Fold this protein.
Amino acid sequence: MNIFANIPFMKYLSFLLLLFTFFVILFIIFVSRMPTIRSNLSIPLTHLNRIDDVRMETDDVEKRSATAFRPLCVKCGVFGAQDGSGYAEFGNTRVLAQITGPEGDGKWEEAYAKVTITLKGVENETKVAELRADMTSSLSAVIFVNKYPGKVIDIEVTVLSDDGGVLSTAITAVTLALAHSGIEHMGLTASAHVTLRQNGDYITDPSTSEAEDAIGGVTFAFVPNLGQTTCVNLYGRIPLKATSPLLEFARQRAIALVPAIHKAVVNSVKERK
Amino acid sequence: MSSEVLRGIDPRGYVSTFIREGVYPDGRGLLDEQKLVFKQGECGGVGSSVVSTQGVTVSCTIEASVSLVSDATLVDIQIESSQQLAEKDAEDYNNLLLSLFTNEHFIRRENLRCLDTSEKTLPLEWQLHVTLKVLSLEGSLLDAAVCAIGAALADTKLPSIALDHADTDESAIEKTQIQADYRTVHKLSLEEPLMCCSFGIFVDSGAKKNDEILLLTPTLEVIAVCRSTCSVVVGKNDLMVLIRERGRLSQFSLIKKMCMITAERRRKFVESLRSVV
């Protein structure tokens, strides 16, 4: 039996085996480094269809009357280090306002103070611009800007969560921050958000889900001691005849908030003492 | 000379006068802890918290998305820069906090799998989007940020997912086949909460001995005159997770002391977090 006859075959076999081992190692390295699956599918939880216990939610909505606000919490003076700060919470809408100044920035030299508003926590840029414009107009109307020539008053508004009525909540937070800062102003601003249903019913301070069936609404800001309005933000399709009663209803709701705001300011003064 | 003038023209001399007496300018002891206040579920999202400690107030909101199982990063962090926090610093803190997630110190990756009503894992994963808002900044941001993330994760509740897609079906999962079932919600299985403490090392050049003095959670005014600052993050079983040192430090025994203080503070935080949950 000639065993040497098989040598070239054995060489060939061992070469193949070596090559196979090499490829196996390469494959293992490749697999260990490569991603298992790459997917661009990413659906925010809020965009998914919901399966809810609907009965419970309906019960909650029915409990609140048309003139009642959502559970609210207002605080005048949140941070000791800031010049002025205020917090307002209506249901799940929460806003914090902080005021820095009045102080000179070395650039502003006019005979009156410059009021700047920075809005944080709102992603939609159009909404930021709208909110800032409404708030600047409402607040500039009450601050005695002529008493602070060459000074800048920075107001930083942080929307912690938005579940409807963010403008009225923000105005309430800023008026509390103004009261805390000691900046001279004409009076406290009370603000309310009211919507109108197709059947003519009003909803006071609705959440986003409660406002779904509304045809329009208004955010109304009002200085009670002057009896003057500083902000009317009307939206939706409201019949002309219904506008005046809606504004009057919103004014009444804003006035209803005044005792709560006064109480927060008085508590802040007591805490300082 | 009034103290305010001294404070303006010689801040180091002003601070060292107090530190020689063993107190900060506000009267607090050099190693006294400051109160840590936290509140959960106040800022929307699937989980949130507001933490206030040492003059820093931070809100943390967690939003969730559903994605297919992959090896992509499941957590992203965004620290919103403000007037008090520069964009560059925000990015630095962002990377630091992200590394804690990447190294699974907050939560393990396998615990981010979506569950159905019977707690069976599905071929879907939760992606968490963590947003930190700095509401006030008069000290070290990292201390409050780490606690805020821990508290927000502990508050996180995710709905069960109803997936209308058979296991044997090889077609891609569509958005319409996924539903969030809020009748059963799940809490996240977390690692033990982390605690971060920031320290300052002060050297009094006017004293006879140039000893390094350890300061717990110094204010920004004191940090400005410190030789070095050090942030220590301690995790489960009092193990060091991260140490971030800036400046010069010669006594390594101080690091041990920092870790012990942080571990002690972590135990208190964990206890109060458990009592809330």
In short: Helices of chain B lie at 3-9, 11-20, 87-102, 141-155, 220-223, 253-276.
